[in-house]
Protein backbone atom coordinates (compact mmCIF):
# COMPACT_ATOMS: atom_id res chain seq x y z
CA UNK A 1 0.00 0.00 0.00
CA UNK A 2 2.82 2.41 0.91
CA UNK A 3 4.45 1.72 -2.45
CA UNK A 4 1.14 2.39 -4.24
CA UNK A 5 0.62 5.71 -2.43
CA UNK A 6 4.20 6.75 -3.17
CA UNK A 7 3.71 5.91 -6.84
CA UNK A 8 0.49 7.91 -6.97
CA UNK A 9 2.13 10.89 -5.28
CA UNK A 10 5.04 10.72 -7.70
CA UNK A 11 2.66 10.58 -10.67
CA UNK A 12 0.71 13.57 -9.34
CA UNK A 13 3.89 15.55 -8.82
CA UNK A 14 5.00 14.84 -12.36
CA UNK A 15 1.59 15.71 -13.77
CA UNK A 16 1.20 18.97 -11.85
CA UNK A 17 3.70 21.01 -13.86
CA UNK A 18 2.18 19.76 -17.11
CA UNK A 19 -1.27 20.76 -15.93
CA UNK A 20 -0.04 24.18 -14.85
CA UNK A 21 1.43 24.76 -18.28
CA UNK A 22 -2.03 24.53 -19.82
CA UNK A 23 -3.56 27.09 -17.47
CA UNK A 24 -3.36 30.82 -16.86
CA UNK A 25 -4.74 32.58 -13.81
CA UNK A 26 -5.45 35.81 -15.71
CA UNK A 27 -4.96 37.30 -19.18
CA UNK A 28 -3.61 40.80 -19.77
CA UNK A 29 -4.13 42.86 -22.93
CA UNK A 30 -1.88 45.85 -23.56
CA UNK A 31 -3.05 48.72 -25.75
CA UNK A 32 -0.52 51.11 -27.28
CA UNK A 33 -0.74 54.82 -26.56
CA UNK A 34 -2.24 57.01 -29.24
CA UNK A 35 -5.45 58.13 -27.59
CA UNK A 36 -6.47 58.80 -24.02
CA UNK A 37 -6.56 55.83 -21.66
CA UNK A 38 -10.34 55.78 -21.18
CA UNK A 39 -10.99 55.68 -24.95
CA UNK A 40 -8.51 52.84 -25.30
CA UNK A 41 -10.27 50.93 -22.52
CA UNK A 42 -13.67 51.55 -24.11
CA UNK A 43 -12.56 50.55 -27.60
CA UNK A 44 -11.17 47.24 -26.35
CA UNK A 45 -13.78 46.40 -23.72
CA UNK A 46 -15.67 44.05 -26.04
CA UNK A 47 -12.47 42.13 -26.79
CA UNK A 48 -11.64 41.94 -23.09
CA UNK A 49 -15.10 40.54 -22.28
CA UNK A 50 -14.97 37.97 -25.06
CA UNK A 51 -11.51 36.74 -24.05
CA UNK A 52 -12.53 36.52 -20.39
CA UNK A 53 -15.48 34.33 -21.37
CA UNK A 54 -13.34 32.29 -23.74
CA UNK A 55 -10.55 31.51 -21.25
CA UNK A 56 -12.61 31.53 -18.07
CA UNK A 57 -10.11 33.74 -16.25
CA UNK A 58 -10.08 37.41 -15.33
CA UNK A 59 -8.98 39.46 -18.32
CA UNK A 60 -7.67 43.01 -17.97
CA UNK A 61 -6.82 45.83 -20.36
CA UNK A 62 -3.69 47.86 -19.63
CA UNK A 63 -3.13 51.28 -21.18
CA UNK A 64 0.44 52.45 -20.45
CA UNK A 65 1.20 56.11 -21.07
CA UNK A 66 3.53 55.40 -23.98
CA UNK A 67 4.42 52.67 -26.47
CA UNK A 68 7.40 51.55 -24.43
CA UNK A 69 5.13 50.66 -21.53
CA UNK A 70 3.46 47.97 -23.64
CA UNK A 71 6.78 46.79 -25.06
CA UNK A 72 8.31 46.43 -21.59
CA UNK A 73 5.18 44.66 -20.36
CA UNK A 74 5.51 42.05 -23.12
CA UNK A 75 9.21 41.66 -22.47
CA UNK A 76 8.71 41.36 -18.72
CA UNK A 77 5.75 38.98 -18.91
CA UNK A 78 3.20 41.36 -17.39
CA UNK A 79 1.27 41.74 -20.68
CA UNK A 80 0.12 38.71 -22.67
CA UNK A 81 -1.27 40.22 -25.86
CA UNK A 82 -1.01 43.49 -27.76
CA UNK A 83 -1.58 44.96 -31.19
CA UNK A 84 1.81 46.49 -31.93
CA UNK A 85 2.95 48.80 -34.67
CA UNK A 86 5.63 47.32 -36.90
CA UNK A 87 8.35 49.45 -35.26
CA UNK A 88 7.23 48.50 -31.75
CA UNK A 89 7.31 44.84 -32.80
CA UNK A 90 10.80 45.36 -34.23
CA UNK A 91 12.02 46.84 -30.94
CA UNK A 92 10.47 43.97 -28.98
CA UNK A 93 12.04 41.38 -31.28
CA UNK A 94 15.46 43.05 -31.30
CA UNK A 95 15.43 43.17 -27.49
CA UNK A 96 14.34 39.55 -27.08
CA UNK A 97 13.56 37.40 -30.16
CA UNK A 98 11.77 34.84 -27.96
CA UNK A 99 9.45 37.25 -26.12
CA UNK A 100 6.47 37.35 -28.47
CA UNK A 101 5.14 35.85 -31.67
CA UNK A 102 3.07 37.70 -34.30
CA UNK A 103 -0.16 35.83 -35.05
CA UNK A 104 -2.61 38.12 -36.85
CA UNK A 105 -2.75 41.38 -38.79
CA UNK A 106 -5.58 43.84 -39.41
CA UNK A 107 -6.64 43.90 -43.05
CA UNK A 108 -8.18 46.71 -45.07
CA UNK A 109 -11.44 46.42 -46.99
CA UNK A 110 -9.51 45.45 -50.13
CA UNK A 111 -7.69 42.67 -48.26
CA UNK A 112 -4.34 44.48 -48.06
CA UNK A 113 -2.52 44.92 -44.77
CA UNK A 114 -0.71 48.19 -45.27
CA UNK A 115 -1.30 51.76 -44.19
CA UNK A 116 0.34 55.17 -44.43
CA UNK A 117 1.90 57.83 -42.29
CA UNK A 118 -0.04 60.97 -43.13
CA UNK A 119 1.11 64.55 -42.62
CA UNK A 120 -1.66 67.08 -42.03
CA UNK A 121 -2.24 70.71 -41.07
CA UNK A 122 -5.12 73.07 -40.40
CA UNK A 123 -6.74 74.24 -43.63
CA UNK A 124 -6.71 77.85 -42.47
CA UNK A 125 -2.93 77.71 -41.81
CA UNK A 126 -2.06 78.06 -45.48
CA UNK A 127 0.16 74.98 -45.22
CA UNK A 128 -0.39 72.62 -48.14
CA UNK A 129 2.91 70.74 -48.44
CA UNK A 130 6.21 70.05 -46.70
CA UNK A 131 7.64 73.05 -48.53
CA UNK A 132 5.25 75.25 -46.54
CA UNK A 133 6.54 73.75 -43.28
CA UNK A 134 9.99 75.32 -43.51
CA UNK A 135 10.69 77.21 -40.30
CA UNK A 136 7.58 75.79 -38.59
CA UNK A 137 6.83 73.41 -35.73
CA UNK A 138 6.19 69.74 -36.60
CA UNK A 139 4.55 67.26 -34.21
CA UNK A 140 5.27 63.52 -34.07
CA UNK A 141 3.62 60.93 -31.86
CA UNK A 142 5.97 58.52 -30.09
CA UNK A 143 9.59 57.47 -30.74
CA UNK A 144 8.44 53.82 -30.96
CA UNK A 145 5.62 54.55 -33.41
CA UNK A 146 6.09 53.34 -36.98
CA UNK A 147 3.90 55.94 -38.67
CA UNK A 148 4.25 58.48 -35.89
CA UNK A 149 8.02 58.67 -36.16
CA UNK A 150 10.13 55.85 -37.69
CA UNK A 151 8.95 56.07 -41.29
CA UNK A 152 8.61 59.89 -41.36
CA UNK A 153 12.12 60.19 -39.90
CA UNK A 154 13.39 58.39 -43.00
CA UNK A 155 11.09 59.58 -45.79
CA UNK A 156 10.61 63.25 -44.83
CA UNK A 157 14.35 64.10 -44.79
CA UNK A 158 14.57 62.57 -48.28
CA UNK A 159 11.64 64.70 -49.40
CA UNK A 160 12.96 68.00 -48.02
CA UNK A 161 16.65 67.36 -48.61
CA UNK A 162 17.53 68.13 -45.01
CA UNK A 163 17.53 66.57 -41.57
CA UNK A 164 14.69 66.95 -39.11
CA UNK A 165 16.97 68.40 -36.44
CA UNK A 166 15.58 71.53 -34.80
CA UNK A 167 16.42 74.66 -36.71
CA UNK A 168 17.72 72.96 -39.87
CA UNK A 169 14.53 72.88 -41.96
CA UNK A 170 11.77 72.79 -39.38
CA UNK A 171 11.98 75.29 -36.55
CA UNK A 172 11.18 72.59 -34.00
CA UNK A 173 10.29 68.89 -33.98
CA UNK A 174 8.35 67.71 -30.91
CA UNK A 175 6.81 64.49 -29.62
CA UNK A 176 3.18 64.84 -28.59
CA UNK A 177 2.84 61.43 -26.94
CA UNK A 178 0.53 59.70 -29.41
CA UNK A 179 -1.68 59.91 -32.47
CA UNK A 180 -4.68 61.48 -30.77
CA UNK A 181 -2.45 63.99 -29.03
CA UNK A 182 -0.91 64.96 -32.38
CA UNK A 183 -4.33 65.53 -33.92
CA UNK A 184 -5.41 67.65 -30.97
CA UNK A 185 -2.14 69.62 -31.10
CA UNK A 186 -2.70 70.47 -34.78
CA UNK A 187 -6.35 71.36 -34.27
CA UNK A 188 -5.47 73.60 -31.30
CA UNK A 189 -2.58 75.25 -33.12
CA UNK A 190 0.06 73.98 -30.70
CA UNK A 191 2.01 72.63 -33.69
CA UNK A 192 1.80 73.75 -37.31
CA UNK A 193 1.48 70.21 -38.66
CA UNK A 194 1.67 66.63 -37.48
CA UNK A 195 1.76 63.04 -38.67
CA UNK A 196 -0.57 60.17 -37.85
CA UNK A 197 -1.73 56.90 -39.38
CA UNK A 198 -4.49 56.01 -41.83
CA UNK A 199 -5.21 53.18 -44.25
CA UNK A 200 -5.36 55.73 -47.07
CA UNK A 201 -8.54 54.16 -48.45
CA UNK A 202 -11.98 55.74 -48.63
CA UNK A 203 -12.75 59.42 -48.31
CA UNK A 204 -10.57 62.03 -46.63
CA UNK A 205 -13.72 63.66 -45.27
CA UNK A 206 -14.36 60.50 -43.22
CA UNK A 207 -10.78 60.25 -42.00
CA UNK A 208 -10.26 57.50 -44.60
CA UNK A 209 -11.69 54.06 -43.76
CA UNK A 210 -9.60 53.36 -40.68
CA UNK A 211 -6.86 54.83 -38.55
CA UNK A 212 -6.32 57.60 -36.03
CA UNK A 213 -7.99 60.23 -38.22
CA UNK A 214 -11.09 58.05 -38.64
CA UNK A 215 -11.27 57.46 -34.90
CA UNK A 216 -10.82 61.17 -34.17
CA UNK A 217 -13.49 62.08 -36.72
CA UNK A 218 -15.91 59.49 -35.29
CA UNK A 219 -15.41 60.86 -31.78
CA UNK A 220 -15.77 64.50 -32.83
CA UNK A 221 -12.20 65.48 -31.98
CA UNK A 222 -11.66 66.77 -35.50
CA UNK A 223 -13.77 67.87 -38.45
CA UNK A 224 -11.85 66.54 -41.44
CA UNK A 225 -13.03 69.53 -43.48
CA UNK A 226 -10.90 71.73 -41.21
CA UNK A 227 -7.60 69.96 -41.97
CA UNK A 228 -5.66 69.11 -45.13
CA UNK A 229 -3.19 66.39 -46.07
CA UNK A 230 0.30 67.74 -46.74
CA UNK A 231 2.29 64.50 -47.10
CA UNK A 232 1.77 60.73 -47.34
CA UNK A 233 4.34 57.97 -46.90
CA UNK A 234 4.83 54.90 -49.02
CA UNK A 235 2.75 51.90 -47.86
CA UNK A 236 3.80 50.56 -44.44
CA UNK A 237 3.11 46.97 -43.31
CA UNK A 238 0.39 46.98 -40.67
CA UNK A 239 1.69 45.94 -37.27
CA UNK A 240 0.91 42.51 -35.82
CA UNK A 241 -1.23 41.30 -32.99
CA UNK A 242 1.30 39.48 -30.85
CA UNK A 243 1.03 36.94 -28.06
CA UNK A 244 3.61 36.29 -25.40
CA UNK A 245 5.49 33.21 -26.60
CA UNK A 246 5.57 31.62 -23.12
CA UNK A 247 1.77 31.40 -22.93
CA UNK A 248 0.30 27.87 -22.96
CA UNK A 249 -0.24 26.59 -26.51
CA UNK A 250 -3.98 26.09 -26.05
CA UNK A 251 -4.40 29.68 -24.79
CA UNK A 252 -2.59 31.03 -27.84
CA UNK A 253 -4.67 28.84 -30.14
CA UNK A 254 -7.98 29.90 -28.57
CA UNK A 255 -7.21 33.62 -28.56
CA UNK A 256 -5.86 33.55 -32.13
CA UNK A 257 -8.91 31.68 -33.42
CA UNK A 258 -11.25 34.08 -31.62
CA UNK A 259 -9.61 37.21 -33.07
CA UNK A 260 -9.42 35.61 -36.51
CA UNK A 261 -13.20 35.21 -36.39
CA UNK A 262 -14.02 38.46 -34.59
CA UNK A 263 -15.19 40.38 -37.66
CA UNK A 264 -17.69 37.65 -38.53
CA UNK A 265 -18.78 37.30 -34.89
CA UNK A 266 -19.12 40.99 -33.98
CA UNK A 267 -18.43 43.54 -36.71
CA UNK A 268 -18.84 46.50 -34.35
CA UNK A 269 -16.29 45.09 -31.92
CA UNK A 270 -13.85 44.57 -34.80
CA UNK A 271 -14.50 48.18 -35.90
CA UNK A 272 -13.74 49.44 -32.39
CA UNK A 273 -10.53 47.45 -32.09
CA UNK A 274 -9.33 48.28 -35.63
CA UNK A 275 -10.06 52.02 -35.37
CA UNK A 276 -12.46 51.86 -38.31
CA UNK A 277 -13.48 49.67 -41.21
CA UNK A 278 -11.67 46.36 -41.58
CA UNK A 279 -12.04 43.11 -43.48
CA UNK A 280 -10.94 41.32 -40.33
CA UNK A 281 -7.76 39.94 -38.80
CA UNK A 282 -5.75 37.43 -40.83
CA UNK A 283 -2.71 35.24 -40.04
CA UNK A 284 0.73 36.87 -40.27
CA UNK A 285 4.24 35.76 -39.45
CA UNK A 286 7.59 37.23 -38.49
CA UNK A 287 8.85 37.31 -42.08
CA UNK A 288 6.45 40.15 -42.94
CA UNK A 289 8.43 42.48 -40.64
CA UNK A 290 12.01 41.71 -41.65
CA UNK A 291 12.32 45.00 -43.57
CA UNK A 292 11.07 47.11 -40.65
CA UNK A 293 13.36 45.23 -38.27
CA UNK A 294 16.29 46.02 -40.55
CA UNK A 295 15.35 49.71 -40.60
CA UNK A 296 14.94 49.80 -36.82
CA UNK A 297 18.27 48.04 -36.33
CA UNK A 298 20.01 50.50 -38.65
CA UNK A 299 18.48 53.50 -36.86
CA UNK A 300 19.68 52.32 -33.46
CA UNK A 301 23.24 51.46 -34.52
Order of helices and strands, N to C? HEHHEHEHEEEHEHEHEEEHHHEH
Number of strands: 12
The span between the termini is 66 Å
**CATH architecture name of the largest domain:** 3-Layer(aba) Sandwich
Quaternary organization: single chain
By secondary-structure content and strand pairing, the structural class works out as alpha/beta
Rg from C-alpha positions? 22 Å
Q: So what's the CATH class of the largest domain?
A: Alpha Beta
Number of domains: 2
Strand fraction equals 15-25%
Task: Give the low-pLDDT segments.
Answer: 1-21
Please give the share of residues in helix.
Answer: 40-55%
Mean pLDDT: 91
Q: Biggest sheet: strands, sense, closure? A: 6 strands, mixed
Describe the structure.
By secondary structure, this protein is of the alpha/beta class. The protein folds into two domains: 146 residues, Periplasmic binding protein-like II (D-Maltodextrin-Binding Protein, domain 2, 3-Layer(aba) Sandwich); 123 residues, D-Maltodextrin-Binding Protein, domain 2, CATH 3.40.190. It has twelve helices and twelve strands. Strands 2-1-3-11-4-12 form a six-stranded mixed β-sheet, sandwiched between helices. Helix 6 links the parallel strand 6 and strand 7. Helix 4 packs parallel to helix 5 and helix 5 packs across helix 12. It is globular.
Topology:
Blueprint: H1 2-21, E1 26-30, H2 37-43, H3 45-55, E2 58-62, H4 67-76, E3 81-83, H5 86-95, E4 100-107, E5 114-122, E6 137-140, H6 146-160, E7 172-175, H7 179-188, E8 193-198, H8 212-219, E9 227-232, E10 236-237, E11 240-244, H9 249-260, H10 262-265, H11 267-274, E12 280-283, H12 290-300
Parallel strand pairs: 1-2, 1-3, 6-7, 6-8
Antiparallel strand pairs: 3-11, 4-11, 4-12, 5-8, 5-9, 5-10
Amino acid sequence: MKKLIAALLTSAALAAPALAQDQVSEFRIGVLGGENAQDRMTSNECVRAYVEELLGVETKVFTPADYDGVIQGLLGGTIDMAWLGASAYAKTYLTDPEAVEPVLVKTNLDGSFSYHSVGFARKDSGIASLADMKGKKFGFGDPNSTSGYLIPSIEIPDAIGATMDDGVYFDEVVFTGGHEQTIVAVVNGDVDAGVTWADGQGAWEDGYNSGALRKAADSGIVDMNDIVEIWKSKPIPEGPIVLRRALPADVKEKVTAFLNGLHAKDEQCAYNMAAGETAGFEPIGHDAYESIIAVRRAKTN
